[in-house]
Amino acid sequence: PPLAPLDLAALARSVVAELAPEAVARDQALEWEDHRSGAAAGSRCLVPGDETLLRVLLRNLLENAIRYAGPDARIVISLAGDAVHFVLAVADSGPGLPDDQRARLGERFHRPDVTAASGSGLGWSICLRICAVHGFALDSGRAPGLGGLRVTVNGPCAV
């Protein structure tokens, strides 16, 4: 698809607002944080993107955090970076994933053993593909300060 500059910060805030009722229903705290520095702080975060695909990406990451973090979890969606590079993260205080399970996230139809929640096991593969189309990187690890899973999307800003 053709990529055009779009405001990732506004899109992320929109997805957070759309999914907030699901988090509230599970007694979860859903938080948005903007950690960008310099002239980028608090401004638009223009990235080369397809809005429909990036909405699918953000919804998938946030829906998974809501689904798997558990009741009373804290979920933080943050945006960091500067005028040339961004890092968007979804982190939670849930149980996280063991390293061996995280390593298998890209396998189609694979679902981690640590949950009984429903799903097709295609979400991470879809997210990887959307990131590849946009020239973004997708990664996961332990959430510092929260202890659960932290998923990051990073890439260039639009010039």
From TrEMBL:
The Swiss-Prot or TrEMBL record annotates one GO molecular function as: protein histidine kinase activity
Q: Which PROSITE patterns match?
A: HIS_KIN (PS50109)
* A Pfam family annotated for this UniProt entry: HATPase_c
Localization in the cell: Membrane
Q: What class of enzyme is it?
A: transferase
Q: Where is the Histidine kinase domain?
A: 1-159
Q: Does the keyword Hydrolase apply?
A: no
Q: Provide the membrane topology annotation.
A: Multi-pass membrane protein
- Known InterPro entries for this protein? HATPase_C_sf (IPR036890), HATPase_dom (IPR003594), His_kinase_dom (IPR005467), Sig_transdc_His_kin-like_C (IPR004358), TCS_sensor_his_kinase (IPR050428)
One GO cellular component this record assigns the protein to is: plasma membrane
The record's listing under SUPFAM superfamilies reads: ATPase domain of HSP90 chaperone/DNA topoisomerase II/histidine kinase
Give me the reactions it catalyses: ATP + protein L-histidine = ADP + protein N-phospho-L-histidine
One GO biological-process annotation of the entry reads: phosphorelay signal transduction system
Key words of the record: ATP-binding, Kinase, Membrane, Nucleotide-binding, Phosphoprotein, Transferase, Transmembrane, Transmembrane helix, Two-component regulatory system
Q: Which Gene3D superfamilies match?
A: Histidine kinase-like ATPase, C-terminal domain (3.30.565.10)
Enzyme Commission code(s) on record: 2.7.13.3
Protein name according to UniProt? histidine kinase
Which source organism?
Answer: Zemynaea arenosa
